[in-house]
Amino acid sequence: MNYAVSDKSSVKAGDTVLVQPGTYTELITLGKSGSSDLGNITLKANGNVTLEDPDPNNGGFEKGVIQSAGKGYWVIDGFRIENTSWAGICLRDANNITVQNNHTYETGASGIIVMPDSSFNGGDAEVTSKNIKVLNNTVERALWKWQGTSDTVHSQESLSIWGVDGFEVANNIIKDGNCEGLDLKTGSRNGSAHDNTITGQAQLSGKPDIGYSGGPALYVEGNRSNEFNIDIYNNVVANNTADGIVIADEKPNQGDVSDIRVYNNVVYGNGIQGVNPGRGIAVTNNVRNVTIVNNTVDKNVQAFSLDGKDYTGGYTPHDILVRNNIFADSSYRNGYADNVNNLTLDHNLFTNQFSSLYEGGTAIGNLQASNNTQVPSIGFANSGGNDFHLTSASPALNAGSADIGQYAQLDKDGVQRIQGNTTDIGAYK
Q: What is the pTM of this model?
């Protein structure tokens, strides 16, 4: 198989390499590219094909069972990849590649990662890949050899999009990873993450011997490069050991995060009280122009956090819109808001087990808060069964603001959201 995709083979743009059923123990390195004129090269499993790492214990940084550097116009389709030393699939300085219908299992680092090959000093120079699609994959038990914060060999996240301009991460199942889940990081921009199901991440959170309190299941992380224009929608982020969705920048003064839209997500059951924050949706510093609308957030340690002191340094988050969300049944508090400027918080529906909508509030500049309501019950179809559709008696019906962007006009089921001058609150019409 490795020969077929090498620069020595006769395979050319527009061709398909069909891999017959069986188990193959080798590293596959893409040695050529397709083209925009003649088409992609497709590497496709023709049935049940399992790929295994020939040396599952001694691989290094950047290595994958399927790997490439500087290549483009490929489709990687339908493989099971298991027991790897580092990544399952690792694409470096990649362009116009689709990774679809694969299943990675017990990988040493990421199940799937797109990353730089040699540029790690920040700025736009670290944005080295473009036009990447990661569709309909299952990433299971990623970072399975990671043993804590001192283990840098098996670091990264279950599915990592690192320095990519133009991406779509959609319809993937990401489950049971040891560290963070889906990470859109370090300058990734002009993309979307939608219709993914992310569960069981940060499994090593709270282990006292490794000092790891847990990372987000879905992380938008600017780090060393500017990150912008990203849509996070229609995802289910549930029963993760730590946070649900977090938008942050870990490296002040090297890059920031802006123009992020978070909508139609169902976020529930995240966090361990007393071990980690367990935030359903969080925004931290060096972040601006974030829209959080029509999400359903239920049974987390806390529903939301908007906090400019979550990391050290950088500017206070500003221009944050939180509208038409359900924030229900948190175990510790509804939420926290402080050290944030130009915050609009309106038409959100809270359950009333806590006396206040949120804690904090002493350092909010230009707060516009209106039409937020607390109720004894949201009126979910089946909260215990995690069916968060609304019953006909729900107080969320017709209680939202119709002032939402064109991107959020349809609900999570694809139903037209706005009727007349009102809409329902939450992810579902």
A: 0.97
Of the candidates 166, 14, 138, the residue with the CA atom closest to the CA atom of residue 82? 138
8 A C-beta contact, residue 130 and residue 107: no
Nearest to residue 196, comparing CAs of 139, 153, 146?
A: 139
- DSSP label at residue 125: G
Angle at 159 between CA 158 and CA 163, to 5 degrees: 130
Rounded Cα distance, 76 and 276, in Å: 37
CA dihedral over 383, 388, 391, 397, signed as positive or negative: positive
Between CA 88 and CA 102 the distance in angstroms is: 10
Q: Where are the beta strands (DSSP E) in 186-295?
A: 189-194, 197-199, 218-221, 227-233, 236-238, 245-248, 257-263, 266-268, 279-283, 287-293
Q: What is the pLDDT along the chain (429 residues), one digit of tens a residue?
A: 889 999 999 999 999 999 999 999 999 999 999 999 999 999 999 999 999 999 998 878 899 999 999 999 999 999 999 999 999 999 999 999 999 999 999 999 999 999 999 999 999 999 999 999 999 999 999 999 988 877 888 889 999 999 999 999 999 999 999 999 999 999 999 999 999 999 999 999 988 788 888 999 999 999 999 999 999 999 999 999 999 999 999 888 888 999 999 999 999 999 999 999 999 999 998 999 999 999 999 999 999 999 988 666 788 999 999 999 999 999 999 999 999 999 999 999 999 999 999 999 889 999 999 999 999 999 999 999 999 999 999 999 999 999 999 999 999 999 999 988 889 999 999
